[in-house]
# Entry
Amino acid sequence: MSPVLEVAGLGIGLDDGTPLVQDVAFAVAAGEVLGIVGESGSGKSLTAFAITGLLPRGIQQTAGLVRLQGEDLAMLTPAGRRALAGRRIGMVFQDPLSSFNPVRTVGSMLVESAVRHRSIRAHEARRLGIEALQCVRLAEPERAFDAYPHELSGGQRQRAMIALASLNEPALLIADEPTTALDATVQLQILALLKRRLGQGALLLITHDLGVAASLCDRLLVMQRGRVIEHGEPQFLLHHAQHPYTRRLRDAALALHGAAVNA
# Structure
């Protein structure tokens, strides 16, 4: 079976030629969860932004290819790239408060996405939006639908972000540090929701926390200074890590999460 996402020889750099990410390669199959782990500045989020076409100004893809369901994304027009967002690729950002439009209700953004990508009427989009909020276990989905982002708690906003990202059943769901600002109990709930909303798609989880990644992912890539330094199944890396950097990440996860990391 062809992978949902294939990345080969990916390079990312500044406009002046300074390399930031070099020779990153991986593939993710349908129903699989792949974690990219590393500290801030390791290049993991830049890798995700290259896939989605959201690289910041002054930074560009310099090498390699990215294929989504066999399609080379470099061949798409800007309009084609924009059409991917929300339909074939869903993105869960680290801070939904700054990612949501603060002057629009959560429901209006859900409706806009469903109408644009599914070509349905607004009343049907409203029904789908409320159902999506129910699926992410929001206690009062109708209230959340009509609320502005600042009227929801951090955990509620992250649930709403997952509902928006997964609304149109994308082939690829990318979650960039989705639990960083949440307390431990809510973190576990959000991770469970991500896996539940995956369906037949693929999930790419970006995190600095090896313990978080080990609890959710089927495979892990460890990045340092823009390169993949180690990869494998979570339990193998936890117990048999070869690279000193991976061992430091493991020790930090053990200090934070204790025995739960090895569960």
Observations:
- The chain has a mean pLDDT of 89.
- The longest strand covers residues 5-14.
- The CA atoms of residues 38 and 208 lie 5 Å apart.
